[in-house]
Amino acid sequence: MHGPTTSGWLLVALCGSTGAYCLVRMRECSGRARGAAGGEALMGFGMAAMAVPAAVLAPPRWSWAVYAVVFGAAALRALWPALRSAHHLHHLVGSLAMVYMALAMATGGGHAGHASAGRPLLTGALLVYYTAYVLRSGVRLIPVPSPSPVPSASSAAGAATPALVGGSRPELTLACRLSMGIAMLAMLLTL
Asked: How distant, in Å, are the alpha carbons of 48, 128, 142, 145 from that of 89?
């Protein structure tokens, strides 16, 4: 997580902006969608905080325990909904991965590359999971041409411009999830 400065700042920007978008989306959603957006905002901001380069801000040793507690609580919150929804199962895996990385950083001295920073088998399993998630999400963003009827003059005149945030733009939500998956892969690679 605390690798080269440039890549660290890029992860901070990517995850921070994704977390901010999820907060905006959370304001415009309700019910389960609101909860999912809140969980994604927490994940985005947590990943941004963990990715701050150690050369700029070396976190105190106790901060890794705070990350583990916060994401452990997020994992407990996602546990019951995960039994009913694949997306909530992904939130559970993500929260547990954050707990794992926080504990690995705490035991590895807070710097990536230490031999004690993480278990290779668990890290490998998470890398496989997130690689599959990123590939699947990326494929879902590829536009699929569909035959569409020629709109009539009345339907074209009454068509509204879609909003830029919220549930009306599912491709933006998917792009944010994809970017957080890529960021998670980058963070796991530094363990």
From this structure: 22, 16, 24, 30
